[in-house]
Design goal:
Strand order of the largest sheet: 5-8-6-7-9
Largest sheet: 5 strands, mixed, barrel
Structural class: alpha/beta
Radius of gyration: 21 Å
Number of helices: 10
CATH architecture of the largest domain: Alpha-Beta Complex
Distance between the termini: 44 Å
CATH superfamily of the largest domain: Spore Coat Polysaccharide Biosynthesis Protein SpsA, Chain A
Shape: globular
C-alpha cells in the first residue's frame, strides 16, 4: 500500500436534491441530510477514511450552491480542500478536476475516488477492501474499480463483467481483470447477468495511481489530460479552473475513460452497501410501527400499512388512519404525500414547484 503522504481521496459531493424533496433541496442534497440520526452521508464518507487517508489529503468536489453546506459538514478538513465546480459538467470533467488538484500537490500519488452519498456501515471491511485496491493500483498498470455483488437483477445500475483473476501478490481481496462495462440493462438482461455470474454492480468507486490514470486519459480522453496538465502547472489554480473547466465536454467517466482503458481491474466489495436512491431505500433503516409503517419519529396509526413517514418538523405529530402505501415527508415549509410506488418519480415534481422550495 502507498505511504500515507502518497495516499489521497477525492469525494464527489455534487448532485441535485430532487429525489428526497421536500427534505432535500438544491443547496442541501441527499449527502448533506441526516437521514438516519447519526450524521450525514458526507460525514460518514469522511469518517470511513480515518486511518486510511490523512485528513489533509482528502479533497471534496461540489458545486457553488452546495459549497457552504459541504464546508459545514467537513470542519475537520482544511478549508482549501473543498472545491466548487464553476459549471455543471458530469463526472469525467469532475474526476479530471480532482486528479489535477491532487497532481498539483503530489504527481506520484495514488488516489481513491468515491461518491459522498452511499451508505456503508462496516468501516473495517471497507478499509480492508480499499487498502487492497490502493495496493493493486500502486503495483499494477490498471485502473481499479470496486464492484458490488448483485443481490437482485436491478436495471438501474451499470454492471461490470469480470474475467480472470489478476496476478497481484499480497492481497486479501483478489482483483479480477474487467472484460467490459455494461450499461443499465433491461430487467431481462439483468436477470441473465445474475444467472451467468461474474458480474458486479458499478458503484462509481475508483482507485488509481496518477501516472497510470493520466497516461490513460492522454490516450483515450486527451482534452481531460491537457486540462490536468494545465492545473498541475498553473501559477493560479483557481483561475485556471474557472477559465478551463466550463469548456470541457460533459461526459461520464465511464464513457470517457473506463470503458476504453487498456486495463481495468475489479475488486468485489465485502462490505455492506446501499446507494440510498429513494425513500424506499431509506425506509429499510427506519423504525417500524404497526404493519410495516416505517418512520423516523413516533407516529400514531390505525388501520394503515406499508407507509413511509419522515417528520422533520420538531414538535409535530403525524397520524395515519386507513391509508396504505404512502410516502409522507413533512418539513417546516412543505408536506409531501406520494404513492410509495412512485418514489422514483418524486424528482418530476421539481419543475412544478415554486423556486423558493427547490
Amino acid at each position: 500500500m502507498p505511504t500515507p503522504e502518497n495516499t489521497y481521496a477525492l469525494i464527489l459531493a455534487g448532485g441535485s436534491g430532487t429525489r428526497f424533496w421536500p427534505l432535500s433541496r438544491d443547496a442541501k442534497p441527499k449527502q448533506l441530510i441526516d437521514l438516519f440520526g447519526d450524521g450525514t452521508l458526507l460525514e460518514h464518507a469522511i469518517r470511513r477514511l480515518e486511518g486510511l487517508v490523512p485528513l489533509e489529503n482528502i479533497l471534496i468536489l461540489t458545486n457553488e450552491k452546495q459549497a457552504a453546506g459541504v464546508r459545514a459538514n467537513a470542519p475537520m478538513l482544511p478549508p482549501g480542500n473543498v472545491f466548487a465546480e464553476p459549471a455543471k459538467r458530469d463526472t469525467a470533467p469532475a474526476v479530471a478536476l480532482g486528479i489535477g488538484l491532487v497532481a498539483a500537490r503530489n504527481p506520484e500519488a495514488v488516489m481513491l475516488v468515491i461518491p459522498a452519498d452511499q451508505l456503508i456501515r462496516d468501516t473495517d471491511a471497507y478499509q480492508e477492501v480499499m487498502r487492497d485496491a490502493l495496493s493493486a493500483a500502486e503495483q499494477s498498470d490498471g485502473l481499479v474499480t470496486i464492484g458490488i455483488q448483485p443481490t437482485w437483477p436491478c436495471p438501474s445500475y451499470g454492471y461490470i463483467e469480470r474475467g480472470d483473476s489478476a496476478n497481484i501478490a499480497g492481497l486479501q481481496h483478489a482483483p479480477h481483470e474487467v472484460k467490459r462495462f455494461r450499461e443499465k440493462p433491461s430487467p431481462e438482461v439483468a436477470e441473465e447477468f445474475l444467472r451467468q455470474g461474474g458480474f458486479t454492480w458499478n458503484a462509481g468507486m475508483f482507485v488509481w495511481s496518477l501516472p497510470t490514470v493520466i497516461g490513460q486519459l492522454a490516450k483515450h480522453a486527451p482534452e481531460l489530460a491537457t486540462f490536468i496538465g494545465e492545473l498541475k502547472n498553473s501559477p493560479d489554480l483557481l483561475a485556471t479552473v474557472a477559465e478551463k473547466f466550463p469548456l470541457l465536454p460533459a461526459r461520464s467517466i465511464d464513457y470517457a475513460l473506463m470503458e476504453n482503458a487498456d486495463r481495468v481491474l475489479n475488486i468485489e466489495a465485502t462490505f455492506d452497501w446501499d446507494d440510498v436512491g429513494s425513500w424506499i431505500s431509506v425506509a429499510k433503516y427506519l423504525k417500524v410501527y404497526g404493519t410495516e409503517n416505517h418512520a423516523n419519529d413516533e407516529i400514531t396509526e390505525l388501520d394503515s400499512q406499508n407507509n413511509i413517514i419522515f417528520n422533520a418538523r420538531p414538535g409535530s405529530r403525524i397520524a395515519l388512519l386507513g391509508v396504505d402505501d404512502l410516502i409522507i415527508v413533512q418539513t417546516e415549509d412543505s408536506l409531501l404525500v406520494a404513492n410509495r410506488h412512485q418514489a422514483d418519480a418524486i424528482k418530476n415534481l421539481s419543475p412544478l414547484l415554486p423556486k423558493e422550495l427547490l
